[in-house]
Design a protein that fits this description.
Blueprint: H1 8-13, H2 26-31, E1 88-89, H3 103-111, H4 137-147, E2 154-157, H5 159-171, E3 177-181, H6 187-195, E4 199-202, H7 212-217, E5 223-229, H8 241-254, E6 259-263, E7 287-292, E8 305-309, H9 311-317, E9 324-326, E10 333-334, H10 340-349, H11 352-378, E11 390-394, H12 399-408, E12 411-412, E13 414-415, E14 426-430, H13 434-445
Parallel strand pairs: 1-12, 3-4, 3-5, 5-6, 6-7
Antiparallel strand pairs: 2-8, 7-8, 9-10, 11-14, 13-14
Bound molecules: pyridoxal-5'-phosphate (PLP).
């Protein structure tokens, strides 16, 4: 592994005299994490201000059938977001059930903490004027305990999106490609594209599930990262754990350095027992599993999640956390990723009470998902069996037209074509509240596919 040039800050931290640092090649910065160890220095409370370099990306895509258009972050290129107020949001797989009990009180308690004049102050509990615990000690412990892992196998992040970003930075070196199913969550492809790494895709199988053999066929020594989601989005298909295990083993035989990122954003909705989680694979394989609090925990707005991964890989990922400042063995210095409110919420969500609530959500989601599928069938739209919090429904005609129509009725859904042209005639619809689904059914009753509708809201997020 190539080691990046150390900065003045790194040298200072290591007790050396600052000096001019030779600029590291962009590619080296992009894909070579510092060889830092990760430990928790006691009493470390210095926040060092530093301008950090990095690639600014945003996952906003143009409207209509144009391919995903990356946004560089320049003001004239940034785009208005998706409407928040007054729309029935069935496009983003957000939870209609809300967060676990205890989350609101935890967030309010954090917000209400007084600003201390003196710091440190005995008995003082830092509030939102203070940086978060940038080592995420409590959160890491909680996540590790939830799954029975050591904290060295866990890294806390601002949702799986940040994890995907970190993985693309850490494991997509120069000349390496990303490999993923052709119809899947588009963020990994976006990040790879921004870095100039090729994206290789494998078709889904005939029942719209991820075809692991097809992924394996396309794996070679240049495959830096394989991304797949289980359950998959947008199809909702689920892979059995045994198949994933065989896949991880076979991929490793073909290309020992390749990292497999398994996105389990929707695993908390799966009804099967035992759950086909890939967690057990991380001990012996180059596998990282992403979990989020955005979906079943109902905390999408607070941006919190974590990964459980092979310890060696987790160590590498530490160097790519947002706000990362530098580090050498024994140090990890950054200003924090998950903010204090998100952290407070995550502590409550991962408590015994929070995890028990998850089981209620699992049941309620399944009931509403059935209602959604049945309601759609009653209106003439078949949908695929789903293990997640959405269904992919076949329309009479063009999914984008239906999306445009629904948008004109202030209902947001995703069209299948934004994931892959093969799904142009489909729409992905999130499980919503009873009222949301009633509004949807009412609108669909008057949809006339022979009428052309504009693409809808001027900017729409595609493929997420
Ligand atoms: C498959 C998949 N992974 C990840 C995400 C984003 O997760 P997070 O909110 O944790 O960044 C989504 C969001 O819709 C998704 O569909």
């Amino acid at each position: 592994m190539q080691k990046p040039e150390r900065t003045d800050f790194d040298r200072e931290a290591a007790g050396q005299t600052p000096g001019p640092a030779a600029p590291a090649p962009a590619a080296a910065i992009a894909h070579s994490p510092p060889s830092s160890g990760f430990s928790r220095p006691l009493g470390f409370n210095t926040i060092l201000k530093s301008s950090s370099t990095g690639i600014l990306t945003a996952a906003a895509f143009g409207c209509g059938s144009a391919p995903a258009r990356p946004v560089t972050g320049r003001a004239e290129e940034t785009t208005p977001g998706v409407p928040v107020e007054g729309y029935v949001r069935l496009a983003f797989n957000e939870s209609p059930f809300g967060p676990p009990p205890g989350v609101q009180a935890a967030v309010e308690e954090m917000l209400g903490r007084p600003y201390a004049l003196e710091y440190p102050d005995p008995g003082f509990l830092p509030g939102i004027n203070r940086y978060p615990d940038f080592l995420n000690v409590e959160l890491t412990d909680l996540a590790a305990r939830r799954h029975g892992f050591s904290t060295r196998a866990v890294i806390v992040c601002c949702g799986i999106s940040e994890l995907i970003y970190m993985c693309s930075q850490a494991f997509l070196g120069t000349g390496k490609h990303l490999l993923m199913p052709e119809a899947g969550f588009q963020l990994p492809a976006h990040y790879a594209g921004r870095k100039g790494n090729p994206v290789r895709t494998a078709p889904l199988d005939r029942s719209h599930g991820i075809d692991l053999d097809a992924l394996l066929d396309r794996t070679d020594g240049d495959t830096g990262l394989i991304y797949l989601a289980n359950p998959n989005s947008p199809t909702g298909a689920l892979l059995p754990r045994e198949q994933l295990k065989s896949f991880a083993q076979a991929a490793e035989r073909k290309s020992p350095e390749t990292v497999v990122l398994i996105d389990e954003a929707y695993m908390d909705y799966v009804l099967e027992s035992p759950l086909p989680e890939a967690l057990s694979l991380v001990r012996n394989h180059r596998v990282v599993v992403g979990r989020t609090l955005s979906k079943a925990f109902g905390l999408a707005g607070l941006r919190a999640g974590y990964a459980v991964g092979n310890e060696e890989l987790v160590l590498e990922l530490n160097g790519f956390l947002s706000g990362y400042l530098g580090g050498d063995p024994g140090w990890r210095m950054f200003e924090g990723n998950v903010n204090r409110l998100g952290a407070a919420a995550m502590v409550a969500a991962l408590s015994d009470e929070g995890l028990a609530y998850l089981e209620t959500v699992r049941t309620r989601n399944a009931a509403q998902r059935n209602r959604l599928a049945e309601g759609l069938r009653g209106l003439g739209y078949d949908s695929l069996p789903s293990h997640a919090s959405f269904v992919l429904a076949r329309t009479d005609s063009d999914g984008e037209n239906l999306r445009g129509f629904l948008c004109s009725r202030k209902i947001l859904v995703q069209d299948g074509g934004s994931f892959h042209p093969r799904y142009r005639d489909w729409v992905r619809i999130s499980v919503g509240s009873r009222e949301d689904l009633d509004t949807l059914f009412e609108a669909l009753q008057v949809y006339d596919p022979s009428v052309s509708y504009p693409a809808g809201f001027p900017v729409f997020y595609h493929g997420i």
